[in-house]
Description:
By secondary structure, the chain is mainly alpha-helical. Helices cover 66% and strands 5% of the residues. The protein starts with a helix and ends in a 10-residue tail after the last helix.
Amino acid sequence: MEYRVEALAAAAGVRVDTLRFYQSRGLLPAPRKRGRVGIYSEEHLARLKQIRQRRREGFSLAQIQRLLSPEQSDTPQLLEALTRERVGERTFTRAELAAEAGIPPALVGAMEAAGLVEPLQVGGEQRFGESELEMARIGLALLDSGLPMQVLLQQAVEHARHIQKLCDVAIDLFDEHVRKREGDPVDDAAVTAAFQQMLPGVTRLVALHFQRTLVNRALNRLRGKREHEALQAALSATENARLEVEVGWR
């Protein structure tokens, strides 16, 4: 069956400008031309439906572009691994997430609006994964320590923006040096196993670097102000503290 752009958008349940945006990002192949009119096919419709499904599952457009790439046969296993890590064993409605974390539903809404948590489409409704629950609990603990909510949200949004860029670079490196190594045969299980093995190490590396940088800069500021008692307390705390970063493969 053939479609013009308006008919294809209607069949896929998206806006025309959304369809064109996907096409500009390389997610959707260009149509063939009949004169000056673009003609789309059933393959385009199937691709649009795949994109919408992955978006409902919480994947970014950059991740979707890689997952839908025809170059590799490891996509199904890697997709399953990514989804399992993204969701965890349980999912929660917005109200359930708020109740489990002990926070007002409005705070969950604020976190979602800021892009800090992303719901998934599960069984026709929006649900959140276990990682969102842990993030909400940690955020509540930070608020209890005296940090203003608005300031904390602003800092979290800025941090998320930098982390997204860093993660895109990390994914590119994984694709180039692990998933698409020139001359090596593609082994679905090996690629997925490599991802599973590397994720905890990379996560811990980033967390340790952040902790070390935070502690060093805090100590330097205290030294500059010559606040000896505060400095000694901070030194004692960092000497006794042990950073625990656990990324269990579910």
